[in-house]
């Protein structure tokens, strides 16, 4: 066990001892956290690119149609990535029919087909994704691509551009915690990268927290800069989600003025 983990565990124990004295007051503060800015979780700030592109996320008015689905893209329809083989996201408001194939197509700016495939989704309803395979041609830096999801006679499309990450940002990302990486990617305007890392981080933490005792949970929160959740855990304040900060990140990302998906994609991280 490394020295950092020992220190984190000791800090968790010390905090656990301290909370036995102040627990009632702490619980009251958490209950009134809406009026206490210092207890609010730090939420990501997504910075969209200044330019946009034509696209089609889907109309929310048809969301009861089982053949309908939505694309998770910024309202400007151009999302940035620093990844050579990024992940693309869609939302299924209802169970998807098995007999209708889902197709993904990637085109360059001249509408030449770069990649095309039929794929299956692992969820019957909710958020699904498609990752550009590692053996396909990588996105080139500085180029825009038009991507499509096809299902029967319905299609959704958007634009993606791969950008180069500044060397100093790369260094900071290497040294950052997973939680801080999400915040930094959002600040850089990397829509696709932010969603992918946020979903992956939540899935990882849920798996870790499920099998952890109180002390181990506090260590997990400390390692991932989730102090708000640690306070709630120690106070026994069960009305707060075990990953409230990440869920707030998700809401902030989807309800940004230049995204406007809040209220359309309601269940987070399905």
Question: Main traits of this protein?
Answer:
single chain, 270 residues, alpha+beta, five-stranded mixed sheet, three-stranded antiparallel sheet, 36% helix
Could you please describe the fold and organization of this structure?
This protein has 270 residues and is an alpha+beta fold. It has a five-stranded mixed β-sheet with strand order 2-8-7-4-5, with helices on one face. A three-stranded antiparallel β-sheet has the order 1-3-6, covered by helices on one side. β7 and β8 form a beta hairpin. α3 runs antiparallel to α4 and α5 packs antiparallel against α6. The two termini are 34 Å apart. The chain contains seven helices and eight strands, in the order αββββββββαααααα.
Q: Give average pLDDT, whole number.
A: 75
Q: Unreliable runs, pLDDT <50, ≥5 residues?
A: 16-31, 33-39, 59-66
Radius of gyration: 21 Å
Describe the largest sheet.
Answer: 5 strands, mixed
Question: What strand line-up does the widest sheet have?
Answer: 2-8-7-4-5
The helix/strand order is HEEEEEEEEHHHHHH
Q: How many helical stretches?
A: 7
Indicate the overall shape.
Answer: globular
Structural class: alpha+beta
Distance between the termini: 34 Å
Strand content: 15-25%
Record field, number of beta strands: 8
How helical, in percent, are the residues? 25-40%
């Amino acid at each position: 066990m490394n020295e950092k983990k020992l220190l984190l565990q000791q800090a968790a124990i010390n905090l656990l001892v301290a909370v036995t004295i102040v627990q009632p007051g702490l619980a009251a503060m958490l209950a009134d956290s809406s009026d206490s800015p210092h207890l609010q979780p730090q939420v990501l700030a997504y910075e969209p690119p200044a330019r946009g592109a034509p696209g089609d996320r889907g109309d929310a008015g048809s969301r009861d149609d089982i053949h309908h689905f939505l694309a998770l893209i910024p309202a400007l329809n151009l999302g940035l990535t620093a990844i050579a083989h990024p992940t693309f996201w869609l939302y299924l408001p209802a169970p998807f029919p098995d007999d209708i194939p889902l197709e993904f197509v990637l085109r360059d700016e001249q509408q030449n087909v770069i990649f095309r495939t039929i794929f299956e989704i692992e969820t019957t309803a909710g958020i699904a994704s498609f990752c550009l395979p590692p053996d396909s041609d990588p996105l080139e830096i500085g180029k825009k691509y038009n991507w499509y999801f096809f299902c029967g006679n319905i299609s959704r499309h958007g634009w993606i551009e791969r950008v180069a990450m500044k060397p100093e940002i790369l260094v900071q990302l290497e040294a950052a915690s997973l939680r801080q990486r999400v915040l930094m990617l959002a600040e850089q305007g990397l829509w696709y990268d932010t969603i992918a890392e946020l979903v992956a981080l939540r899935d990882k933490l849920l798996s870790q927290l499920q099998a952890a005792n109180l002390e181990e949970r506090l260590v997990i929160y400390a390692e991932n800069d989730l102090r708000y959740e640690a306070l709630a855990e120690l106070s026994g304040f069960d009305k707060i989600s075990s990953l409230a900060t990440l869920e707030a990140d998700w809401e902030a990302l989807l309800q940004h003025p230049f995204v406007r998906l809040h209220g359309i994609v309601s269940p987070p991280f399905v």
